[in-house]
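Record type: monomer structure entry
Structure origin: computed from sequence
Chain ID: A
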Amino acid sequence: MTGFTAGHEISHGFDDHGKAFGADGAYGDSWWTPATDAEYARRADCFVAQYNNFTVPGLDGRPLAVNGRQTLGENIADAGGVDNAFLAWRRYAADHGPDPDLPGLEGWSHDQLFFIAYANGWCSDARPNALVQLIYGDPHSPSRFRVTGPLMDSRYFRETFGCASKEPTCKIW
C-alpha cells in the first residue's frame, strides 16, 4: 500500500483540483490549453458516471449511489495510484530480480499477487449508517469501490487477469 499511497498523492497534483494550480503554485493559473482542458473534462465525466453507478444499501434498504462528482478527485488519484505503484514495482523487479514465490500461493503470478495485495489493503467493513455518512459527506468512495473502480480502470489489471477487454473503463492519462 505504500507504493499506492505515494502514487495516489502524486496523482492529486493532476486531479480535478490539482490541475488548477499553475507552475508557480498559484491557484487559477491556467497552464492547459482549452483543448486539453476539454478532453480532461470529458475523461473525468467518465469517472463521475462510473462511480455514480456504485451503490450501498441505504438505511431504508434502497440503493444509495456514490456521488461521482463529490469523490472525483479521490477516484482519479486512486486510479493513478494503483497503476503507478504497479509500474514502479515492476521496474524494481526488473532492476533487482523477482520477489520469491510465496508458499501456498504458487498458483498466482507475481503480477496477480500485486493486485490481490492491493485489494486486501482495502478489506474492511462498515455499519450501514457509517456508509450512509460516507456517501453524503466524504470525498472518498467506500473501500470496496476503491478496489472495484481503480481495477476496472487499469489496463495492467485487465491484462494480468486475462479480461476479455483490456481497455480501461475510464482513463485520465
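Annotation 1: The two ends are 21 Å apart (CA to CA).
Annotation 2: The CA atoms of residues 28 and 163 lie 40 Å apart.
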